[in-house]
Request: fold
Amino acid sequence: MRHLTKIAAVVGVSALLVAGCSSKPGNSSSGNGSFNACMVLDTGGVDDHSFNQSSWAGMKAAEAANSNVNPSYVSSNSQSDYTPNLKAETSKGCNTIIAVGGLMYKAVASIAKANPKQHYAEIDNSNQGLKNVYGLQYNTAQGAFLGGYLAAAMSKTGVVATFGGLNIPPVTIYMDGFWEGVQYYNKTKHANVKVLGWDETKPQAGEFANSFTNLNVGRSISETFISQGADVIFPVAGGTGLGAGAAAVAAGGKVAVIWVDTDGCVSAAQYCKYFITSVTKNLTGSVKQYVDKAASGSFPTGNYIGTLANGGTGLAPFHQWNSKVPQDVKNELTTIKSDIISGKIQITSPHQPQ
Amino acid sequence: MSVAVQDPSRPEPFVADVVSRRMSPRRRIGAGIALVVVGLLCALLLGLGSRAGYDARFDLANGGEYFTVPQIVVPARVSAFILGAVVVVLGCYQALRGFGRVGLRWAIGIAILAFLLTFLCWSTTGAPDQHIDMLGVLEQSLFLSIPLILGALAGLMCERSGVINVAIEGQMLAGAWAGALVGSVVSNLYIGVLGALVVGGLMGWLLAVFAIRYLVNQVVLGVVLNVLALGLTGFLYDALMQPDTATLNSPAVFQDVAVPVLSQIPVVGPLLFDQTVIVYLTYALIIAVDVALFRTRWGLRARAVGEHPRAADTVGINVLRVRYRNVILGGAVAGLAGANLTIGAIGGFSKNISSGMGFIALAAVIFGRWSPRGAVAAALLFGFASEMQNLLSSITTPVAIPSYFMAMLPYVATIFAVAGLVGRVRAPAADGEPYVKG
Reply:
């Protein structure tokens, strides 16, 4: 009995240890360059198929382009890791430190103030007026506007739908753009396509899963949309959004999905058949661009805002839908894109970065 | 006010005997006034709140039935007035004369139904020609309830024999992971279900060993096991499944199997008899657990061990063995709930896919007064309320309902229903008490 207790305790503790160490701390690439680009990741790990992964890919791309760049990252297991991670990286001697995620903004601000000579960059937040911080932001409402227009054009039932993970600005900016895109379609085509789940003029309401991990609720919300007539769904809910893919499979081809953040045919390839396209947020490209410039000695200052004009947001390729999207619609999307860039079409979402 | 003592040989009724046989006038009038208020809410707030002249439309068919139930079209405002008036009349009668114990329960049930129907009518009048696919709503309610029902049955099997199971969430998560992995590797969903049952059972065994043999505080233990399952499945997902998704995390999904004849009955057919194998298994389990718990030797012993282990021991029941068996079986059922989340609905596993459903299942056990029927009713109620949240957020209501209010709707609805219908609950007397012989 005594022995068993001990063995059980050892097994239990080691299992917890294994589970606790699931993130690989302080990964350092083999590169022996002299420019140390360090990244503090948000929770979810470097293989999260989303945010962290895309940002880290930007670091790797910068290394591939310039062997002088020596990228490394640390993971955060919870929000309480932000400050210790940023501090550790600061004392490690990094040339620049990139914080992934707007949730880190307070930690970044306090550490950047305390270390005015250290360069920082933060994704999804402005530089908060600090000279040694570079803010990387994305006006994804522009990309989502194209997605909304496309959804309205592809819908046979005249009903499209969107839902979010939480009612927070990084999510609702997409939903705003989507809604506006559908309204623009209705205006120019004298159509009456309905949007379920979101109305920019009533931002307190809307359909939210209140989870980024509950795929079953994502599927259920999508099925509810489908039974209310929707045939194109735009989930802005991370993993929960995969439930829309499962609902599309169950609907057997009657329903299509527009994916979000990354190219869905790459990040969730099992549902590629149902993805018309994806509204992208080009984390990889903008991180690479920043590291490129910083490594060449000229640290960019101020803020970067990803737009349709600079490729910071946009639509992914149509992949398997390439032949199904009519050429007229493709042409219209090109026109709308240049109209948004030129300012002829004004996006009204209140969540756009300034 | 007294809680009626249950005859242990008979199944407990699911609704509590909260009301003593002779109700005090104060209580009688209070209940009556509450009903009148609900009736006035229906008629005035929802009736006058819905736009005049709008019809509420409900669909109850999807085309494959023997005959198609026509779309139900009712004038929203008039319906609200009529339903509200009915509830007000019920309330007045209750306040003046008083229904009996059973009658009042029926009256409350009617009031809740009337409120719900009025609310639905009101919600459709936000835009012209809006309809609600009621059949779809019911189907989704069931879809959201199935993992809760299975989880609640798992909790029930443990708690009835005296072991608190806070680890339902962890057992579900482990089962979800195992179901996806095994189902993917062997390309056979039935073996995937088997894998989920085994791994869920293993999680149950862990709970049993520490709770029964080492007498660890069962609530703390359950929380620890949940964290263990979350960390372990997350780690194994990153380390094992991610690098080779195609072979390790790409299981098929159980398809709906229509039961001949039964599936073509209007409303009930498409709702209950066009489902996946796991759902049919759930129906069987509900009946099996209910019958076994109250009508078999196994059930009698399990309940005896959960209520008074010492007495059970003196008549020769092996208390610890009964507890071990029930906790492991419960874990396996929770594993099945997990399998339903992956191969029963979505396919692949992803981190924290159970997302707290195990805790809701645990709540359903308690709200259902530790009885299978009650737990199933509580799980169905929660599923229905969650689906109402989805539905009301997707249609245009006359007044935009804030999303944060919607997020709490399932919980608020459950609390109200429990307060109105269930009343005081009593756990098995030895629930959470480790048994030490001697």
Remarks:
- Residues 18-31 of chain A have pLDDT under 50 and may be disordered.
- Chain A has two domains: 24-138+284-306, 140-281+323-342.
